[in-house]
Design brief:
With 202 residues, this protein is of the alpha/beta class. Helix content is 46%, strand content 15%. Helix 4 packs antiparallel against helix 5 (70-78). The longest helix has 11 residues, at 55-65.
Length: 202
């Protein structure tokens, strides 16, 4: 069946988000930053807030657990806006091209705290180009859990067999594929354009 739906992840695909932009001013080396993210402000900890846990409570929980790291812990959400590096312009241009195809619908499916997503909405005009979006923090679930994808499918009447999902996290791509959605593991805008060209979408 012909593809009629493109689903985009946001962070790492359309928006350059990287907590290292903050922590390079806190720690002296990348090794120290790696250790901090592996042991204190971990990926799993941040994803818990993506699924709706309050940022302030998450911060207090972690400070209580690791009081010796209080300042850098508080900086994670206290300086969150500094982690936004700006649009990934080449991917934004790909989205613009796709929007010119009247036979295609575009959606966003993002792991993002409901508390911080309004900042992105205000900052990036292209987030308003989508035909619809689901934000994990608003839905109280997240990728890679199947129910998050299913909510998007149900809300916008998407046929998985006619959809493509783009994400920089291979784990999330594989979850989409398990629901019958064609996945593209995003590496860079050039590679994405090539992959979309292979299926005659660009």
């Amino acid at each position: 069946m012909a593809i009629n739906t493109i689903i985009f992840d946001l962070g790492g695909v359309l928006i350059d988000w990287n907590p290292r932009y903050v922590y390079r001013s806190i720690f002296k080396t990348e090794v120290e930053i790696d250790w901090f993210f592996e042991n204190i402000c971990t990926h799993d900890w941040n994803e818990n807030q993506d699924a709706g846990y309050p940022l302030s409570q998450a911060t207090e929980d972690l400070v209580k657990k690791h009081p010796e790291w209080e300042k850098p812990i508080r900086d994670f959400y206290g300086r969150w806006e500094e982690m936004l590096g700006g649009p990934i312009y080449e991917t934004v241009e790909i989205l613009r091209e796709l929007k010119q195809n009247p036979g295609l619908k575009t959606y966003a499916l993002t792991n993002w705290s409901a508390e911080t997503f309004p900042v992105a909405l205000e900052r990036y005009d292209f987030l308003h180009w989508f035909d619809g979006r689901l934000v994990s923090g608003e839905e109280k679930t997240r990728k890679p859990f199947p129910d998050f994808y299913q909510k998007l499918i149900d809300k916008f009447s998407i046929n998985p067999l006619q959809a493509v999902f783009i994400d920089d996290n291979l784990r999330n791509v594989k979850s989409a594929e398990e629901l019958g959605i064609k996945g593209i593991h995003f590496l860079n805008p050039g590679q994405l354009k090539e992959e979309l060209g292979k299926i005659n979408l660009l």
